[in-house]
Automatic annotation (TrEMBL):
UniProtKB keywords: Pyridoxal phosphate
Gene source species: Streptomyces spongiicola
SUPFAM superfamilies registered for this protein in UniProt: PLP-dependent transferases
The keyword Protease is assigned to this record: no
A Pfam family this chain is assigned to: Aminotran_5
Name listed for the protein in its UniProt record: Isopenicillin epimerase
Parts of the chain that traverse the membrane: none
PROSITE patterns: PROKAR_LIPOPROTEIN (PS51257), TAT (PS51318)
Amino acid sequence: MSTVSRRDLLAGSAGVAAATLATGSCAAPSSRPARPAASAADGPADWEALRRQFRLEPGWANLALFYLASQPKRVRDAVDFLGAQVDANPLVVPTGMRLPDGPTGWPRVRRALASYIGGRAEDIAMTASTSIGLGVFYNGVRTRPGQEFLLTGYDHRAQRTAAELAAGKHGARVRPCSWFADPATATAEGIAAAVGDAIRPHTRIVGITWVQSSTGLRMPVRAVAAAVRRANEGRAPADRCLLVVDAVHGLAAVDEDAARLGADAVIAGTHKWLFGPRGTGFVWVSPEVLDQLHPTFVSFITGGGAAPLSPGGFLAFEHAFALPVAVEMHRQLGRTRVAARIAELSTRAKRGLIRIPGVTVHTPMAPELSAGITCFSMAGRTHEQIVGHAATRRVRLSASVHTRLGTAVINTPAEVDTAVGSVADLAR
Ligand SMILES: Cc1ncc(COP(=O)(O)O)c(C=O)c1O
């Protein structure tokens, strides 16, 4: 058995002033609507204490944690604690694994997530990543030949590929769309109107990304959902247009209940902004459209609802079953405070970057149309040059369509300034 003590594991040092530790902290029973994630933690958070939970290489400013995240001590300890149980007696998996505060397993994991996203545990399927969740969804939707899926080039290839593979199987097609001319000047009304205009009677899925990793733009999911709802008026269930959201960069970065945005399905990995164990993720499906989805894999999670959509097999249980520890850490931090900190850091980055001659910021300045990813480019420089130059200043950035600066809750204003300084340097 691991030597990690119960106290260490539960308390960690999440860095929350006056955090009260809920032992046996399972959320409300799954038949009741879950309480939204705590947003009401009072007082300032101790972000430095939270940062100390991470083993990030000292001396480097890592502003690419949205791409591949580091894990906090609390989560690492929980994974070790559970892994020791499996190694001592692998049959503990079916008979019952425990976190220090009580039993853990799929029911607890689903309840914890439900409480965080403001939904019900039975509407959640478990996956190992966003990509797998997107495959589960697109493969699973009952689709007739001739129907179509709408996506943009800004959505991640995990979603575009899932859509193309499924469309190929069903005799459907993916129609590339555009919701805005320029992400920096996009508006919620304009995006929602473009989605509404694009939907045809044979449109089966509109796939969007809550926070686009290619532009940093946060899609106005509620407004888009309203446009999809209007298009669905009078449609039979098999003709209904479903709205699916790749939520991986909105979850634990935006102060919203993901299950209450008005989408039909919300899909996310939980190993990025939530700092969950690697190899964890989920698909939330609105109960209203569950009968429109087929499972793709055998599921080892018992029960009805969305459980049969969970790809099964004996998985990395020590990772999956430690997820409630990450959710509890965020509950203690308070989702409002986390989102505010992320917005504060990304606003600082945007304000610094737009002052640099030759730099174009592609992410909207408005906090309600952005979150923790800031995308930019520099005239006369490639993204590789910008990322490479930043590395000489011990700053980690990443690039896709544009150069990207991600502000996780554990980054600091000083790190943002160092990163912006490295860009200013290159511009001189
Ligand atoms: C928008 C978006 N969706 C999906 C993915 C893939 O996520 P996962 O590794 O959880 O499959 C990424 C990867 O960073 C992403 O940026």
